[in-house]
TrEMBL record:
Stored CDD domains: Ig
Pfam families from the UniProt entry: ig (PF00047), Serpin (PF00079)
Molecular function terms, GO-annotated: serine-type endopeptidase inhibitor activity
Keywords on record: Immunoglobulin domain, Signal
Protein known as: Ig-like domain-containing protein
Signal peptide: 1-31
Family, as annotated: Belongs to the serpin family.
Domain Ig-like residue range list: 23-111, 124-201
GO cellular component, as recorded: extracellular space
């Protein structure tokens, strides 16, 4: 494999000028950073443009030491050639040019990346993922280029291309999915950035498919295994921990997919939907859902614990599940029974036509969300076999009421723009407020009725990097530690200012499902526990979440609260923040969100 550097020479004359400028101010730092893979050939040009310099005037240095070996420097002395590249070649290369007219220094910082070569074996006719990732530190401004063999550029950005799909456009993960690989798809694939940085190389081997076995549920039609120890002390924490881990994983996917918008989702609703599906999933589909939900494989009590959790949350969060199915499907009896037992959902037949079904489903959603969400689907295709729904409705009142200020507040966005918002205010709110060192954030906890709390997490400064820092640190462990800290800290009187927000967000659940490693559901799921006659395919996934901060009944009296004393600390969320709605009873997150612009609608 050859790393062609001729492209660099042209493309980087600008950088060369930058190098010259840097040289003038004696601030020599890395000018060109290249990532290369072991086994490749690297040719570094010393000069970026034609110059009257003799080869004798050039010295190459590696990590500060002169490079003596003549083999390493090609004959004319203008290029440094390394072939094959090994991890020992990683470091700083410097080319010094010194004669009467010129004095020049050119630097390369070479990183040898060992983990980017993959050999992948695939069976003819199956789908295969070709992995590629941008370094986590870089910004993603354009998608990676995928090239087969030396020169055949693959079209990854055409949505109508059924063969190749770039799973997460403009994401750090530039993995592509090749569908139904044929023998001629075998070969070497390269993934590189627009700046021609090599990101991964994949040797794809395609093997002839064995004669396919017909879809059969013969071994998988048994019902979900009983939970033998319903009073187990460990089962409840297992589900709590899995749910929090799952929630924070979803948050990390979503914050990356929507870096500049408000964000809101209900992990508990997504988790309950997946676990309901799990009830009917068997074999590999079951394993991938368990992995996605972060629950251990063969945790038989998962449904029983879900039911317990739903009951535990019911004082503040009402959860409902529902299944609609095509009357021509024969749902398994045991699935119907267990669905009622664990999810309180009696499968309901779909009606004759799309309009009736759309109306039926939207009105179920409206009813179960107490009219907070009245619309989910636009139409129901006649091909629809099965639809799983979950709705949650949360209502919690501030333990101490807030006032709605008459005067609007100024919410300062990340770019410095000011948005005028209605403001909820209290001059002496009894709240817990801490600086959480691990998150580099100021966190306030507001107790709500129904044994739950709203946490507002304010990054240290109103800067994008600070917000990103906090978000990246919000792992399940860090969040649990934060909750623990906030629970033990004593409340104090705080002057509180919150924007009156109404979030209504509909993240792309299809992308989320793929991120969760559930792409295979779109290609055919083993739902033998639910229905044993034919394979079904996931067609669409949706999620919508809505959240409103109001003064909850306190309509007046805000004028006085303008004249406050500065003698106690204040907590003002009039700039971007992250919110976490937590059930203290169930010890799991209910809603997670981010507010960038309080007036943004969808
Ligand atoms: C070269 O890259 C390494 C690893 O990324 C980094 O630690 C080092 O500071 C870089 N050197 C320069 C001069 O940029
Ligand atoms: C079902 O199980 C039997 C024995 O456990 C095995 O021989 C058979 O191949 C299995 N059938 C399928 C379709 O997996
Ligand atoms: C559903 O089950 C019934 C009775 O078990 C059977 O007669 C019918 O053919 C099945 N329907 C389908 C679509 O397989
Ligand atoms: C939901 O439906 C039930 C049963 O039909 C009804 O009693 C209840 O009032 C409805 N709730 C809302 C918010 O519409």
């Amino acid at each position: 494999m050859n790393l062609d550097t001729s492209g660099y020479s042209r493309g980087m004359s600008l950088l060369a000028i930058l190098c010259l400028l840097l040289q003038l101010i004696f601030e020599l730092s890395s000018c060109t950073h290249l990532r290369v893979i072991p086994g490749s050939t690297l040719e570094l040009p010393c000069l970026m443009f034609q110059q009257e310099v003799s080869g004798d005037a050039i010295t190459w240095k590696f990590n500060g030491k002169d490079i003596k070996e003549p083999v390493r420097v090609s004959k004319d002395g203008f290029h440094l050639k390394i072939s094959p590249v090994t991890p020992a070649n990683q470091g700083e290369y410097m080319c010094l040019v010194k004669d009467e007219n010129t004095e020049l220094i050119n630097m390369y910082n070479i990183t040898v990346v060992a983990s980017v070569g993959y050999t992948i074996k695939a069976i003819q006719g199956k789908n295969v993922h070709l992995p590629c990732h941008f370094p986590s530190t870089s910004q993603v401004n354009s998608n990676a280029l995928w090239i087969k063999e030396a020169n055949e550029a693959l079209n990854t950005e055409d949505e109508n291309n059924k063969k190749i799909e770039l799973l997460y456009p403009l994401d750090h993960d530039q993995t592509i999915l090749l569908r139904e690989v044929a023998l001629e798809d075998a070969g070497v694939y390269h993934c590189e950035s627009a700046e021609k940085e090599k990101l991964s190389t994949i040797y794809l081997i395609v093997e002839v498919a064995p004669t396919p076995e017909p879809h059969s549920c013969s071994n998988f039609t048994t019902p979900w295994e009983p939970c033998l120890d319903e009073n187990s002390r460990t089962a409840e924490p297992i589900l709590q921990e899995s749910t929090t881990e799952f929630s924070m994983k979803l948050f990390s996917y979503l914050r990356e997919s929507y870096p500049f918008n408000n964000l809101l989702f209900s992990p508990i609703s997504i988790s309950a939907t997946l676990s309901h599906l799990l009830l009917g999933a068997r074999d590999n589909t079951r394993k991938s859902i368990e992995r996605a939900m972060c629950v251990p494989h063969n945790f038989h009590c998962v449904h029983f614990q879900m039911k317990k959790l739903r009951e535990k949350l019911s004082s503040s969060l009402q959860m409902a599940s529902q299944i609609y199915f095509n009357p021509l499907m024969n749902l398994s009896e045991s699935f119907i029974d267990q669905s009622i037992q664990f999810y309180d959902a009696e499968p309901t037949r779909l009606l004759e036509n799309s309009e009736e079904n759309t109306a039926m489903i939207n009105s179920w959603v409206a009813n179960k969300t107490k009219n907070k969400i009245t619309h989910l689907v636009d139409s129901i295709s006649s091909n629809t076999q099965l639809m799983l729904l979950n709705a949650v409705s949360f209502s919690g009142q501030w333990k101490v009421k807030l006032d709605l200020k008459q005067k609007k507040g100024q919410f300062v966005k990340l770019n410095g723009d000011i948005v005028r918002v209605s403001v909820l205010y209290h001059s002496k709110y009894l709240a817990t407020m801490e600086h959480v060192v691990e998150l580099k954030a100021q966190v306030a906890r507001f107790a709500l009725s129904g044994d739950s709390s709203l946490y507002i997490i304010l990054p240290r400064h109103n800067k994008l990097e600070d917000l990103r820092y906090v978000e990246q640190r919000m792992t399940d462990t860090a969040v649990r530690q934060m909750i623990q800290l906030m629970k033990t800290a004593s409340p104090q009187h705080v002057e509180v200012t919150l924007p009156q927000i109404k979030l209504d967000v509909q993240p792309d659940m299809n992308v989320l499902m793929k991120k969760l490693g559930l792409s295979s559901l779109y290609e055919g799921a083993n739902l033998c526990g639910l229905y044993s006659e034919d394979k079904v395919f996931l067609d669409d996934a949706r999620h919508r979440a809505l959240l409103e901060l109001t003064e909850k009944g306190v309509e007046a009296g805000s004028v006085t609260s303008l004249t406050f004393s500065r003698s106690f600390p204040s907590f003002s969320a009039l700039r971007p923040f992250i919110l976490l709605l937590w059930s203290d009873q169930g010890n799991v997150p209910l809603f997670i969100g981010r507010v960038i612009d309080p007036l943004e609608r969808k």
